[in-house]
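Lecture notes, continued. The same structure-token format from the folding unit now serves as the input rather than the output. Read the line below as a description of shape only.
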């Protein structure tokens, strides 16, 4: 999906979504994908997502396991996975806007390569762990990190100085 002008918006109905194997969405520099709050997030059920947006940000709600192949935005990034785990290949977030990844029932994994998540503020929420398993720790290059894990381990490989804003691990 490529928008030559304007944003790609959700219809506000959680029962309608984009379903497929690979989804690529691109919008112009001043536009966004989905929207913050309520039913604004773009509802998808895809195996792999590549998304590029401007200051309008990227807001996605996924229903199954997803790989974030390449996510870039100068605005806020929020990806919430309601049914599976998230694997990160590459996320280039804004240094002035937050990036949030949330796996409601699963984990957040690294893909095992040197790429990862860059940006200013990063919040990670996962029920079953972050950066664990055969792919190794989650690679980051961010200024501030918040972690909230219900159970499981946390492994993060940060490439520069970092402020740990919050760490919460359930017992």
């Amino acid at each position: 999906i490529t928008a030559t002008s304007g944003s790609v918006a959700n219809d506000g109905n959680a029962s309608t979504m984009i379903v497929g194997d690979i989804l690529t969405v691109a919008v112009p520099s001043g536009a966004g994908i989905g929207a913050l709050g309520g039913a604004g997030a773009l509802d998808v059920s895809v195996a792999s997502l590549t998304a590029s947006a401007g200051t309008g940000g990227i807001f996605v709600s996924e229903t199954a396991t997803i790989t974030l192949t390449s996510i870039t935005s100068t605005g806020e990034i929020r990806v919430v996975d309601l049914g599976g785990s998230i694997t990160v290949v590459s996320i280039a977030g804004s240094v002035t806007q937050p990036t949030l990844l949330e796996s409601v029932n699963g984990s957040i994994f690294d893909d095992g390569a040197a790429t990862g998540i860059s940006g200013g503020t990063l919040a990670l929420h996962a029920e079953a762990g972050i950066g664990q398993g055969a792919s190794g720790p989650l690679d980051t290059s961010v200024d501030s990190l918040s972690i909230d894990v219900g159970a499981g381990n946390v492994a993060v490989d940060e490439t520069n100085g970092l402020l740990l804003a919050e760490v919460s691990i359930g017992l």
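Point for the exam: The CA atoms of residues 123 and 146 lie 5 Å apart.
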